[in-house]
Amino acid sequence: MSAPASPSGARRRALLFWAFFAIGTVVLALAPLALNNYWLRVLTTVFMYATVTQGLNVIVGLTGYHAFGNAVFFGFGAYASGVAMTLGAPFPVALVAAVAFSALVAGIVGWPILRLRGHYFAIATVALNLAAIQLVIQVGGVTGGAEGLPLPLSDLPPGPLYRAIYLVMLAGMVVSTLLVAFILTRPFGYALRAIRDGERAAGVMGIDTTATKVAAWAISAGITGFAGGVWAYWITFIEPASAFDPAIGVKAYMMLILGGMGTVIGPVLGAFVLEFLSTLVWGGFLQAHQIVFGVLIVVICLVAPNGMLVAGRSLIQRWRSRHGAA
Amino acid sequence: MALLEANDLEIRFGGVKALAGVSFRVEEGEVFGVIGPNGAGKTTLLNAISAVYKLNGGSIRFAGEDVTGLPPHRLSRLGIARTFQIVQPFKAMSVRENVAIGAMFGHARLRTRDAWLAAADAALERTGLAPKAAFMPPQLTLADRKRLEVARALAMGPRIILFDEVMAGLNHTEIERMIDLVKSLKQAGLTVVVIEHVMKAVLALCDRIMVLNFGAKLAEGVPDDVVSDPKVVEAYLGQRFAKAHAAAGGAR
Ligand SMILES: Nc1ncnc2c1ncn2[C@@H]1O[C@H](COP(=O)(O)OP(=O)(O)OP(=O)(O)O)[C@@H](O)[C@H]1O
Ligand SMILES: [Mg+2]
């Protein structure tokens, strides 16, 4: 059994981690000066998925509630920002609308369905995703319905515009990661982890489990909605099938599993590794990339079911003990 | 005035009545024992009081107030703490963090991080878990896991604490230590309900005992009367216990 880590060692590791995080953020923020359009797009996509995965992390990783349909808030965020801009709102206001609307939906829908434990909630989120597609089509009008919704074009020329979107997506990834780190130090974060590890005990120890879960889901939805809101502006045309594409949620789930559920940096690592891999696979196996990707998922689940951080650590430990240098 | 008062509690699972109209009162400062055969409804009774299960009938008063239907977290902040027969530690948190959760959310008054940690450390000290504060729950022995349940409840600063078989699976020495702990709680003015199969502990601790059988109250009273009640001997204790107890001239 491993001895409990000494507090000073833990503090040193945390300092090192945040130093890396700060350097990485600065490097990525300056990178557009050197990147071509292709890599700008790849990285913007990575940041987008890292943000969606961080949103998923809040409800799945921290709270232990599987939300298979969580990417529904990506769609709600995209549509909230799309509709707001169509109505004349500037982009920053549209982003606020995307976050607020997504969080609001989670708050309202979460109140009844988060009382359900375990699988029922997971299924209900999938149903919500399917319902959302129908809803947008039925509402029509300002959402564009089944025809889709073209967003107003930006005044910026493409170069600066794409760099701006890159930076906003990067901000989404960085801020959502900082938010998760902050939550974990607060009583709210302890409440989430307590619910994840034993909801019944959490309740009798004084945690208002329903309110806490709803708050967690609203935060999760807000983060996811932000990514959707930026995405809508980026691609300038959204339709129900692309905004509420279940594949977004599946990919985020894989990134979360790969990176490590409930960790601060796992979603970011998972997004980088999987999105780069998927870009490579996409290029190399244009025909078979779904299959290759599927096999990849299975391999991840078998080799690193607790994420690559845990897998890496236990690999190092095994290597050390074999070489006697404990 | 009774601190806890249960009237006609009823809990059904499908067609089965796990609790079929149970009433009792626990006076402030006493140790109240609940015994009975496996499946009698003891744990269900605890779940009913702590609102883990919804009542199908009946009402509960605590400290003079009607608390029927309040959610678990509200009850805990009013001062009702409990342990779980099947221990339920937060396995991804250290022992100290586990206990601090009780102070953080279940304590009616503590507001600062320092106060939560101080309450946690006091509870760890009291239960003898202090040397293992930095352990993770999977590293604990069964006896220590039971202590962790107790420490978490204590950190909530409760007025009443409900123990569900905290002695089950412990060895002789560990049982003695747990008995001493419960005695010290009573001395400190806490009201305690103990569900227990370990009769030695029940007799050493309880001011009064209630016997449950098939979800109903079979007997209630001071220990000596209850354990010599023929109904109780037949339903639960058995002849051997009764003879041994009589031969010893009662427990005290
Ligand atoms: N969640 C549940 N669903 C269905 N039946 C239940 C549930 N909980 C308890 N029961 C049933 O209610 C009855 C009482 O169970 P309970 O756990 O309260 O007994 P107990 O007196 O605590 O027994 P033990 O001494 O073995 O702990 C049993 O028949 C049990 O099977
Ligand atoms: Mg029981």
Topology:
The complex is a heterodimer of chains A (326) and B (252).
Chain A: H1 7-30, H2 37-62, H3 72-86, H4 91-113, H5 119-139, E1 149-150, H6 158-185, H7 187-197, H8 199-204, H9 209-235, E2 237-238, H10 240-243, H11 246-259, H12 266-284, H13 289-303, H14 308-322
Antiparallel strand pairs in A: 1-2
Helix pairs in contact in A: 2-6, 2-9, 2-11, 2-12, 3-4, 3-5, 3-9, 4-9, 6-7, 6-9, 7-9, 11-12
Chain B: E1 2-13, E2 16-27, E3 31-35, H1 42-49, E4 57-62, E5 65-66, H2 72-78, E6 80-82, H3 95-106, H4 113-127, H5 142-154, E7 160-164, H6 172-187, E8 191-195, H7 199-205, E9 208-213, E10 216-221, H8 223-227, H9 230-247
The structure holds adenosine-5'-triphosphate and magnesium ion (MG).
The site of adenosine-5'-triphosphate has 11 residues of chain B, from helix 1.
Describe this entry's structure for a reader.
The complex is a heterodimer of chains A (326) and B (252). In chain A, helix 2 (37-62) runs antiparallel to helix 9 (209-235) and helix 2 crosses helix 12 (266-284). Chain A has a two-stranded antiparallel ribbon. Chain A has helices at 7-30, 37-62, 72-86, 91-113, 119-139, 158-185, 187-197, 199-204, 209-235, 240-243, 246-259, 266-284, 289-303, 308-322; strands spanning 149-150, 237-238. Chain A has 14 helices and 2 strands. Chain A has a single domain, classed as ABC transporter involved in vitamin B12 uptake, BtuC (Orthogonal Bundle). Helix content of chain A is 76%, strand content 1%. By secondary structure, chain A is mainly α. Chain A is globular. With 252 residues, chain B is of the alpha/beta class. Chain B folds into 2 domains: 2-79 and 159-247, Rossmann fold (3-Layer(aba) Sandwich); 92-157, no CATH class. Chain B has 9 helices and 10 strands. Chain B has helices at 42-49, 72-78, 95-106, 113-127, 142-154, 172-187, 199-205, 223-227, 230-247, and strands at residues 2-13, 16-27, 31-35, 57-62, 65-66, 80-82, 160-164, 191-195, 208-213, 216-221. Chain B has a 6-stranded mixed beta sheet with strand order 6-7-8-3-9-10, with helices on both faces. In chain B, strands 2-1-4-5 form a 4-stranded antiparallel beta sheet, with helices on one face. In chain B, strand 4 and strand 5 form a beta hairpin. In chain B, helix 3 crosses helix 4 and helix 4 (113-127) crosses helix 5 (142-154). The radius of gyration of chain B is 18 Å and the shape is globular. Chain B starts with a strand and ends in a 5-residue tail after the last helix. The model of chain B has no long low-confidence stretch (mean pLDDT 93). At the A-B interface, helix 7 and helix 8 of A face helix 2 and helix 3 of B. The structure holds adenosine-5'-triphosphate and magnesium ion (MG). Adenosine-5'-triphosphate binds next to helix 1 of chain B.
